[in-house]
Each structure stands twice: as structure tokens, then as C-alpha cells.
Amino acid sequence: MKVSTSQLLWFFLLFFYHCEACSHYKFVVKEVPYTRLCSTKNILTVNGQFPGPTIYVQKGDIIFVDVYNRGSYNVTIHWHGVRQPRNPWSDGPEYITQCPIQPGEKFRQKIIFTTEEGTLWWHAHSDWSRATVHGAMVIYPKMGTSYPFPEPDAEIPIILGQWWKEDIETLYETFVLNGGVEKYSDAYTINGQPGDLYACSKQETFRLKVERGLTYLLRIVNSCHADSIFFSIANHNLTVVGSDASYLKPFERSVVGITPGQTIDVLLEANQSPNHYYMAARAYAVIIKPFYDNTTTTAIVEYCGNYTPSWPPVFPFLPVYDDSRAYNNFTESFRSLANKEHPIDVPMEINTHLFYTISLNSLCINNVCPENGSRLLASVNNISFVNPNIDILQAYYYGISGVFGTDFPSVPSLFYDFTASNLPADLQIPELGTKAKILDYNCTVELVFQATSLFRGSDHPIHLHGFSFYVVGMGLGNFDKDKDPSTYNLVDPPLQNTVHVPVNGWAIIRFRADNPGVWFMHCHFDRHLTWGMDTVFIVKNGKSSETQLLPPPPDMPPC
């Protein structure tokens, strides 16, 4: 077929425009009114959407996102689970890798995708703004490659979230002012909608239309501010195929457990009789009532065709709110593919051993609290993190002294029975500080997370920026350095960026520190992060130019 020069030019222009559209995004952060639960309030959004826009890329892509802050508060955006090699400048956590984008200002962020493939998400990383400022990221296989499972007929992001009737910024300020008394949410949401079981919500319930005989890839994101979630679809099993943008050996379950910050990819086979079936989600909570939202959010899976659906739709089984066995059994089923097409690289020779206790703390002894009203804190190795006035990355890069310390301990200062039911009250008082752990470039790290029962035992979704890591072990009680390493999975451990540390239990991760820069690590329960359950790794430069921190972009937000 003969092709004219004008046709070739037209094709080139179309191709060029398409690439430009795919590689550049515009995020306008602004407040818009949204109505939920019979009332309307202004919420912070990206481009007026809640949840925000989904970003679509292919493995290995580089994109640029221009973030315009048209809201009333400072904001930053984090690209959760994206490795960002040598580029912490665009990672996003406020006062860690950047100062916030102030109202009326703009920041262009460069997002470098490398090995990630599957589902990740982006969200605000300033105060509690991520409650409404978040969205999915879909990373497709490279051109010429395919999924390690049969191609689905359709793909749908399923974003689990929370809704408060009150203004989020007011909730945050009240939380800080009251010393840590949190108000639980008024509703959970599926793709921004509470669902049929809440007042004034039935008309807007999210509906997923399916055709019998087809397979659907559900890309599930837990964007919840405060709770892990049980998720299920009535009369349907789900085949788990990936988590945190890494593939897993497929396994089938009727109930999914997903912690804040985590993503899970599942295949839904539309193999039931045509009808309406509830998709439902509610809290997995190890704390006692009434200190969590005990409501249930729903969406409806609607089969196409001519039939009279049952009403109400068929409802799925969900475990009771504190069923730790069900939740932990699900999480412990994760196994990497570990095959030729998707190999793993678990560090076998470890030269950096770390042991981090993660605790809730109280400043009140015998019901006597500080005069300033502070009562609750949280800590890593009994150090409660304090945000500096300028970002740590800037201070590290330019050699500004007095911003952070470099003496974060590799182990806790005191070893005790971490999960005992009655611990001395004086153990509850942490040290306040802004301290970083320095890692040599390319060192191999094994990190033990040990949850404690100080003040009140809790599970913890721990997220590490700048890295994915292998979860090689998990268990209940105190970690036993002599016995528990024999249970490690070093054959096909899952590659994650967020690990669920069970209540009064432990989890072990391994990773290679081959990404120079400043990288945040924190609990993804926002109340725990606000209380100080966070710390920083600084990975030193390697010897070659390709293993050294990139210079900052010219438009870094000022402090």
C-alpha cells in the first residue's frame, strides 16, 4: 500500500501528541463541594475528582506531573510504591523530601517507573489530606510482554476509602489539639460512594456491570486513613494474582484482607446466575468498640441480561471485625512467582541487621498528663519522630546542620517482653527526636519489625519509600532470633512496599540499599504517623555517577 508524505506526517503528529498526553499530567489541587450522607461539604480534590484521576503507564515509563495548589492549605503528592531511583526530590512526603507546595504555587514532579508492574496509587502526603486526595496508578506490562495470567476481559480500579461529615483539616487540628483523641469515620466508601446501607446513598452506589462468562481484573487499593479492610463479593471467589505492583502465585479466596497503603490485584470470574450481588467491605480492627467505624460499605455487581434481580442483592460473608486469624492467614498466603519471566533477588548474605520496635505510647502516668494536653504518641525504637522546619533531603544534600541527627539506633535501647499484657508504665514514655539511619550504598538489610503491647497493642501497616522489599517472615509474639529464622521463606517471598505487622507480632523484611537518597518509613495509619511512628533512612551515594543522588529540580518548593 502506498502511503503519502502527508499521511506519514499526520501519523507522526498523532503519535507525538499521544506520547505527550501520556507522559505529562496536570494535577490541580482544589476544593470543591461533595455531597455524601445527606450533607454537603468542601473537600480537597485533584481536578475536582474524588477519588482522583487514574494514571496509566507501561513498565519503565517516565512521566511528569505538574501539581498546581489551588486550595487553601499546603499540600504534597506522593507516588506510593514507585521506586524513584536516585530521585527522592519527587517522592513527596512533606518535610522529609520537600517542603510543601503552598497555596497558589506549582511543582513539577518527575515520576520514574522501573520494575513496578501492576497496581500502585498516589496520594497527598501532608497532614490528613490524603483522605480525599488520592487515586490509582495502573502499570501495564512492557510492549511485547503480557500478564502471567490469562488476559482479563476488562479492568476496574476498586478504591476503598473513608468519609467524614466533618472537614478533614478541622479533624486533624482537633486531633492534635486534644492530644490524640481521634474521631472514627462516618462511612467507608467504594470508589467514593458509601453504598446502599447508609442514609442518602442508594442512588449513587457504585455499580459494576459484568457479562456472564467474562473475567474482570479488579485493582483494589486501600486508601483508608485509619483501618485495614475485609473485602468480599457475594457468591464469588476471587483469584489473587498480585500485590504492590508485583505478581503473586495465584490463589483463590472468598475474602480479601487489605491494609492501608496496600494494593491487591484479583481476578473476578462472572460465573454465577444472572443477578445482583453485593460487593462489600468493612473494618478489620483489633481495637475494642466503639473506637472504630463498624459500618459496612457496598457496591453492586450487576449481571447483564433480561431477568428480575433479587432485592436486596445477595450479601457476602465477611469475618467479624477482630478475626486476626482470617486476616493473617490471607496475608501469609502471598508468594512471588519466582520464575524465569519474573525472577526474584532476595539478599542471602546480610551485612546490616536492624531490629525496630513499633509502639503506641502515652505521656500520662497514673492518669497525670502534661499541661499542654498531649497524651498519646507513637514510636520506632522508642523514638517519636518530630518533623523538622525544613526538609531532611535539602538539609542532607546541602550539608545544613542542626536539622536531623544521624544516630537512630539499630536496636532498641532496652529488650523486654514486648508483648506482655502488663508492662511498666514508665516504658510508655518515648524520646522525641528527628533522627535518621544511615545506610551504606548497596548494603544488604534485614529488618525485624516487632510490634509491642505498650499502651495498647495494634497491628501496623509499615510503608517504606524508595524501595520494595521481600517479606521473608511473619509471626505472633516476640521474635526469637534463635528459632524464627529457620521459618524464613527465602524461596518465593512476596515483594511488597507495605507490610502488615500483626498485633503483638513481628514481620521480617530484606532489601538491598541500592537507591541513594532520603527515604521515609512510617506506619500507614495516619493517626500513628501523626503520633510519631516514622523514621528516615539515608542511603549514601555509590562510587559511580550512575549510583549517586540526582541534583534537585529548579522549582523545588521553598521552605
Catalogue the unreliable spans: 1-22
Helical proportion?
A: under 10%
Distance between the termini: 60 Å
Total helices: the number is 5
Class computed from helices, strands and strand pairing? mainly beta
- Characterize the largest beta sheet: strand count, sense, and whether it forms a barrel: 6 strands, mixed
In what range is the share of β-strand residues? 35-45%
Seen as an oligomer or otherwise, the chain set is single chain
How many beta-strand elements?
32
* CA-based shape: globular
- Write down the Rg: 23 Å
Q: What value does the average pLDDT take?
A: 93
Biggest sheet strand line-up: 10-9-12-17-14-15
Structure commentary:
9% of the residues lie in helices and 37% in strands. It is mainly beta and 559 residues long. The protein starts with a helix and ends in a 20-residue tail after the last strand. Strand 1 (24-36) and strand 2 (39-46) form a beta hairpin. Strands 10-9-12-17-14-15 form a six-stranded mixed β-sheet, with no helix packed on it. The protein has a six-stranded mixed β-sheet with strand order 21-20-25-30-27-28. It has a five-stranded mixed β-sheet with strand order 11-19-18-13-16. The model is unreliable at 1-22 (pLDDT under 50). It has helices spanning 5-23, 168-177, 324-331, 392-398, 526-531; strands spanning 24-36, 39-46, 55-58, 62-69, 77-80, 106-112, 118-124, 134-140, 154-163, 187-190, 207-210, 215-222, 228-233, 238-243, 246-253, 255-258, 263-269, 276-284, 296-303, 352-362, 376-380, 383-385, 431-433, 436-439, 443-451, 460-464, 469-476, 495-496, 498-501, 505-513, 517-523, 534-539. The longest helix has 19 residues, at 5-23.
